Prior knowledge:
seven-stranded parallel sheet; 8 helices
Amino acid sequence: MMLAHKTFLITGIADEHSLAMYTAKEIVKNGGKVVCTGLGVSPYHQNLSDKAKAFLNKNFEDFKTSVKESLGDALVAILDVSIDENIESFAKELSDKNIKLDGFLHAIAMDKTIRKKEVKPLIDVTLNEFCDTMNVSAYSLIRITHHLLNHKVLQDGASICSLSYIAAAKVTFHPYRNISIAKAALERITVELADELGRKNGIRVNAIRFSPYMGSKAGNATLKEEDVNTSNKMSPLGNAVPQDLAFEINHLFRPESRITGEIRHVDGGYHITG
């Protein structure tokens, strides 16, 4: 099997409908193993309100249930990429358990300027809102990679893949603003890491722009049904489905590939339309 004896970290799973979950299931189907992370209360969270603790605890329980039902006994862990100490302790935990990773999926994003499907004008975005979105949605790719390499968890020749979308490059009819800038940064980080890590470690780094998708918690929180319908009509092949994305990521995860520094499209051709 293509991914036999390989292990991959999958971030960004919220429930069984998450895009990351489709990828994880396809990895297992191809003989690989997965380590899955979700949001929860970590030892590094401080001054959380009771409401915030309850939210994070429920989020982690839902995450664990989804992983158990879809993936069996896959290892799960709390990972909040906004807290660097949490990323480092997670990497150390994997090292202590002698877990070696052959790659990982970065499927993490956050933008507090989108509320009830309404997008805050960019001109009104605060410094904290801008930096928080950039930190979680883009810079975290650097920090996860940094700590996994420092703890000798991420192997030479590994493959890293992250999720993006067309708004990183074009103004779209569904008017993302703040998060679009972070995704543009994520794509640039992808290219720079592809060069840096390829030369030093033989590690491949790619990103994929996917169709608008409402099935996940994030998509349902930000997109409207008419957005998905419009992109489906504009795309020559119609919107891509999560399994299309899972196939492409598994293709990029396969061993000994020479594909790196790519910003790929799995969107039914949406990106070629005017």
